[in-house]
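Homework help thread (please don't just give me the answer)

Our assignment gives two proteins as sequence + structure token strings and asks us to describe the second one. The first is just a warm-up. Here they are:
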Amino acid sequence: MATTLQFITLAEFLKLPETKPASEFINGRISQKPMPQCKHSRLQLKVCNSINQVAETQKIALAFPELRCTFRGRSIVPDVSVFAWKRIPFDAEGEVENSFQIYPDWTIEILSPDQSTIKVISNILHCLKYGTKIGWLIDPSERLILVFLPGQQPLEITGEDKLPTLEYLPLNLTVTQVFAWLKLG
């Protein structure tokens, strides 16, 4: 269950040790994300792998699971953060930086049974407000995916509908394919 603490500053929050599961800083408060369960973990893994299989070798983009993104007064940990290759921060040795002080190009959240839908949507909207191009909210219990685009009403995608992605990312997925990943064997 998520916990909430008293108000602190973002700078104070960033000095705290990381928690497992991750904690996020939103509007002066810390809240801990729920512990991922199996369906959540499976979808997170498959989404990251599907994106990276198409995007990483061509240096188009890269998907990261549970990456802390700190920008515009919030420090959030989307289930999947996708960054255009040209926006990924690299250090002097050419390795990816540990800290991302930027918004993701695409944010993906997978709703857990005891997670606040409003809080998750609020994080997606925050990302869109400050530059993110697309957000997905995957709801395993409802078998639907809400797609958020800047300045538009959310799109409810179900069944064989093709899921919108970043325009430069040739990923052809349907909702049926995404939820088929939950069936093993």
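The one we have to describe:
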Amino acid sequence: MSDTAELIAKDLLSIQAVFLKPNDPFTWASGIHSPIYCDNRLTLSDVKVRNDVEDALAATIKEKFPECECVMGTATAGIAHAALTAERLGLPMGYVRSGAKDHGRKNQIEGKCQPGTKVVVVEDLISTAGSSLEVVDILREAGAEVLGMVAIFTYGMQKGIDRMTADNLTWYTLSNLDVLAEVAVQEGYIKAEDRQKLLQFRANPSDESWMGK
């Protein structure tokens, strides 16, 4: 695992931005039972973790997308991270609404994004990637050149990976479930045998056999 991925995993666990309950699962809105819950908005409330995250996002964009001209956040969770990252890079920033406004100029893209602008999208979490790719599509339709996407964390679900691949989108995350599960065992958040439950859930979220049923 990379130093950054390990650091961010430790950060997320320490503030319960990623919370693991392999023996007392959460219930998602879809009704699926999950051993993991992710709320990366909590990173904004912890100064140390927030700085680690924004420094890493900025470093990733600078290294992987040096030609980036504008940072665009996803609504709503990616907006603050996009703003803080853009500030570090000295770049313009904007964000994409989940739906167009029904008044005024009826914008869906907030902030200036001229056709041909080289954009990197900042996301907080990538799961199945559906909403993330909607943002990319909106920016492309507006004429932006989307270089890629950076996110704080991903479950690494195959559906999301397949969608990103089909869209030919380059993307990077600061950390992921594989690293986090390993760190969680090392740090005593979960038992070694619980790590497999997390990975089994990730492989097929609708199959609840990982719960021992």
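TA reply:
I won't write it for you, but here's a hint about the kind of observation we're looking for: Confidence is low (pLDDT under 50) at residues 101-105.
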